[in-house]
Amino acid sequence: MRALILFLTILMSAAPALGQSVTLVTLGDSLTAGDGDEVGGGYPVRLLNRLQGIYPGSTLHNLAESGWTSTDLINTQLTPAVNLLNSAPAGNVKMAIVWIGSNDLFGLYNWVCDMDYGNNFSLCEPEDLQNYTNNLNTILDALSATGARIFIALLDDQSRRPVMTDPARRFAAYDNISDSDLPRMANQVRNYNNVILSAATARGIGVADFFNTTLFEDWATLSEDGNHPNAAGYDAITDIWYQVVTSP
User: Fold this and answer.
1) Which residue blocks in the chain are alpha helix, DSSP H?
2) Residue-wise pLDDT tens digits, 123-139
3) The CATH number of the domain where 203 resides is what?
4) Residue 98 near residue 152 (C-beta atoms within 8 A)
5) What backbone phi and psi angles, to 5 degrees, belong to 31?
6) Which has the closest alpha carbon to 173: 225, 103, 216?
7) Which is the most buried residue in 39, 139, 229, 234, by most CB within 10 A?
8) How many CA atoms lie within 13 A of 95 on its CB side?
């Protein structure tokens, strides 16, 4: 997986020329909205500030909403994102960043498999994966049609976050996710990431790797909820995104 991620990053379309302005649109959930950031702004504001140094006049439109799933993103963020990219000033480089799937997974094991499928995992997990695949294709096709440079994130293994590994924290935040659900979640995260890599490969999309990090396991980069990054975490996340979006 690491070799494929590197290959995708290298094959991305050329980075914008120095001096060009960037119209940056970010889509996603709380990780893009900036939950847990005591400084504020999450990674999108930090990334814009970094980009301003080499692409002056760049602008940011952060459409992310906490708690949103890939279906919610399509219903609320996708059309505004497409409109913003299509109306970007002439000569601007258009960029869109997508980081989505955490809440699809939390919801799958907190209520969907239980309440809608009676814990029939052999049915709920494949149907969920197909739904995520369909949603991701819809999102990426719509964004790609604008001519923007698209970037997407591989998901971290949420089963390793302290909010999952600490039973008390897990019960307080997701009271229907059991110990036995965690290995299932870990496997489904890998399934999601395979879908992401496949979609990225087919479209020449740049990939940011949050799967092969410990950002969501290390308290030094996590907020007190054991779920979202803190300011140091968002600093590290910004470094990863900056490398991906500025790679030649």
Assistant:
1) 2-10, 30-33, 42-54, 70-76, 78-86, 102-107, 121-144, 162-165, 167-173, 181-203, 231-246
2) 999 999 999 999 999 99
3) 3.40.50.1110
4) yes
5) -70, -25
6) 225
7) 234
8) 30
Location of structure tokens 């975490």: 233
Per-residue tokens: 144: 């790609």
What residues form DSSP beta bridges with 95? 24, 149
Do residues 131 and 192 make contact, with C-beta atoms less than 8 angstroms apart?
A: no
Q: Minimal CA–CA distance to 103: which of 160, 153, 155? A: 155
Q: Which domain holds residue 206?
A: 2-246
Domain count, the chain: 1
Residue 110 DSSP code = I
Please report the pLDDT score of residue 2 as a whole number.
58
Rounded to the nearest 5°, which phi and psi values hold at 14? -60, 145
Ramachandran class of 226: left when φ > 0, alpha when ψ lies in -120 to 50, beta otherwise: left
222 backbone dihedrals φ, ψ, rounded to 5°: -120, 150
Helices 42-54 & 231-246 angle (0-180, nearest 10) = 40
Q: Are 61 and 87 in contact (CB under 8 A)?
A: no
With bands split at pLDDT 50, 70 and 90, how would you rate the model's confidence at 15?
low
Supply the DSSP string of 202-240, one letter for each residue. HHT-EEEE-TT--TTT-GGGB-TTSSSB-HHHHHHHHHH
The encoded tokens of residue 151 equal 């970037």
b/e sequence 201-212, b meaning 16+ C-beta within 10 Å: eeeebbbbbbbe
Give residue for tokens 């809440």.
Answer: 103
